[in-house]
Amino acid sequence: MTSHVDTVSNAAATSDHPQPYKELGLKDDEYARIKEILGRRPTDAELAMYSVMWSEHCSYKSSKVHLRYFGETTTEEMKKSMLAGIGENAGVVDIGGGWAVTFKVESHNHPSYVEPYQGAATGVGGIVRDIMAMGARPIAVMDQLRFGAADHPDTRRVVDGVVRGVGGYGNSLGLPNVGGETVFDPSYQGNPLVNALCAGVMRVEDLHLAFASGQGNKIILFGARTGLDGIGGVSVLASDTFSGDESGSGRKKLPSVQVGDPFAEKVLIECCLELYHAGLVVGIQDLGGAGLSCATSELAAAGDGGMHIELDQVPLRAANMTPAEILSSESQERMCAVVTPDNVDAFMAVCRKWDVTATVIGEVTDGERLIITWHDEIVVDVPPRTVAHQGPVYERPVQRPADQDALNADSASRLNRPETGDELRDTLLKMLASPQLCSRKWITEQYDRYVRGNTVLAENADAGVIRIDEETGRGIALATDASGRYTKLDPYTGAQLALAEAFRNVAVTGATPKAVTNCLNFGSPEDPGVMWQFQQAVRGLADGCAALGIPVTGGNVSFYNQTGQTAILPTPVVGVLGVIDDVHRRIPTGLGTEPGETLILLGETRDELDGSIWAQVEHDHLGGLPPQVDLAREQLISEILVSGSRDGMISAAHDISEGGLIQTVVEAALAGETACRILLPEGADPFVTLFSESAGRVLVAVPRSEETRFSKMCDARGLPWVRIGVVDDGSDSVEVQGQFSVKLDDLRAAHEGTLPALFGNSDH
């Protein structure tokens, strides 16, 4: 049984035995360091563990030196409501009333290009297990998707698989998908981004963390059996780049993508919650990227002792698996728990009730080493922290790209602009129907938004709103945003614009923003220009959070998002969590809930079209500098929206971002199926007023009876505002007075026809 297995004693006796460490992604100096740590060459199983745990995806070896800045800029005041932060499976925030919410966003980019359906599905499954591992019940998911050009032949394959994967897994779990974002841009052609967010809820006292302590406590693996799917999977896939040849022969390191079973995960959720409720769990870790290598080393590293694992006890679903394969397998729907000996029987009984396979595979020891045996022979004997936390840390070269100045000098101000009313109308319709701004209904209708009955806002909303407490009406709002175009122009400002928009989107619902998570998607860290983008984006995001007084609770870094030498647009996705004390006062997006509402534009409009959707759609142009960010203004708008919501002064609100004011007006009119008349401020440039993407602006609808009170509140707080129009119950059009008018039916046809025409005749 063990003659062909590489044991520790064999490794010590065969120091010159060649090993395929380079094929596993390790550099010469990294392999030398492993030998130095162990005092010998690693066994095959140890080599597998170190290679996956020291991969970019698991070790953050290129980003660690920059990510520390988040901690350096987080004040004690910002931490006050944070129960768990960076370094845990997910961030946890106290939202009051004895409730805590955990949320996180993670990437599953490379697997979703190779096998879009399973890549996206298991991305959802993985982030849900992170939330489960904190002791919470998952309550909602969101997805941030980036695809190549909408009309590229391969985009349909990826879009179809990813959307079905996200929907298929989330719908089967019974989790509402309450929002997200879908972007089409050629930079993502060979490297789509699939970022999934999950939020969960628990009572504050139910928080669980990942650590193995208590000598003699048992390690129990429960959930699905371990198979060959995903060997190397996310850990190797996410740590290297696709070569330029997309035909298949030119792809580097593409092991099989994991296969998900949402029904097994649904049962696992209920099983975990019952185990938590019964007090049977000391520590817990989900099995995601790097599988058992990660779970065992991280649990042991975070505990107060060592660990002994009997690998031959792991339930398998494939014959003849080697120790290295068992440790590296990324089979889905698995969890690892630390349980006291006197609770093992009760733990097993709960698992049997839910028909969940559970096996004692080891125990916590009094030593400081992680020892793994295979049929009584030692195949791993390592200090666990060297695997989990003490991997290489690189200070990669950082250099502003040589072409950045030229990019910033190439302003959109030189581009031809529409001048007449007819030209403005044509521009609106073209942009409204563009893949960049058209309705995402074709995508979102494949997701269940209202399952579980606690979704308050999802469709057509700036943020998803979920009720947490039926008695009090307490709820949360979630929004995710990113702009690769702005971040390319100025990564520091681009990251802050993503933060500002997500912050504003939460505030627009009437919720108070409380915490941040992020998923930082960039090209190769071996490119100094990419590392400059990354460094600047991290600093921008951290400084922005400090200015707004809300902490980053955790996140994810995804490097090597490029095809050949061509990196994606730098895409820092920012998720913001807000709290609303009573979801009944949430602010909807659609106009027309009150007759004859007044439309008010909050904030200031400047001539800011660089990096805009107009520049992209009309001129295929990217250059100049992104809009200015004023975080104090964002904070003020947030406070006014919350106050206006509490006092019944606001009947609808919609954030102004991509496409400018006119896009916001049309979306709000279509959402409310209500016509309106826009009055341009005297002396204002019609094009700039309608299409500028200046930040820090919101369109609000105010009942006539509240207009004076609301405007006085804005004046008293120093927030610029202008009366921009009225809801017109007697019309069937959106009219910009003195310029153009378009019927709602024509606007809807333009807005909703594009994605079905591109992707709708799917074979699935």
Could you characterize what this model shows?
- The protein is an alpha+beta fold and 764 residues long.
- Among the domains are: 1-17 and 26-70 and 211-242 and 254-391, Phosphoribosyl-aminoimidazole Synthetase, Chain A, domain 2 (Alpha-Beta Complex); 587-757, PurM-like C-terminal domain (Phosphoribosyl-aminoimidazole Synthetase, Chain A, domain 2).
- It is 36% helix and 22% strand.
- The protein is built from 28 helices and 28 strands.
- A hairpin with a 2-residue loop joins strand 12 (370-374) and strand 13 (377-382).
- Helix 8 packs parallel to helix 9.
- The longest helix is centred in the C-terminal third of the chain and has 21 residues, at 528-548.
- It is globular.
- The model is unreliable at 233-238 and 242-255 (pLDDT under 50).
- Residues 87-202, 461-580 form the PurM-like N-terminal domain.
The DSSP helix count reads: 28
Summarize model confidence as the mean pLDDT.
91
Assign the structural class, choosing from mainly alpha, mainly beta, alpha/beta, alpha+beta, or little secondary structure: alpha+beta
State the end-to-end CA separation. Answer: 46 Å
Second-tier CATH architecture of the domain at 1-17 and 26-70 and 211-242 and 254-391: Alpha-Beta Complex
CATH superfamily of the domain at 1-17 and 26-70 and 211-242 and 254-391: PurM-like C-terminal domain
The percent range for strand residues is 15-25%
Uncertain segments are 233-238, 242-255
Radius of gyration: 26 Å
Please name the CATH topology of the domain at 1-17 and 26-70 and 211-242 and 254-391. Phosphoribosyl-aminoimidazole Synthetase, Chain A, domain 2
Strand order of the largest sheet: 8-10-7-11-9-12-13
**Dominant shape:** globular
The CATH class of the domain at 1-17 and 26-70 and 211-242 and 254-391 is: Alpha Beta
Instruction: Sketch the major β-sheet.
Output: 7 strands, mixed
Number of strands: 28
- Helix content percent band: 25-40%
GO molecular function: ATP binding; magnesium ion binding; phosphoribosylformylglycinamidine synthase activity
Binding site for Mg(2+) 1: 106, 556
Family: Belongs to the FGAMS family.
Enzyme class: ligase
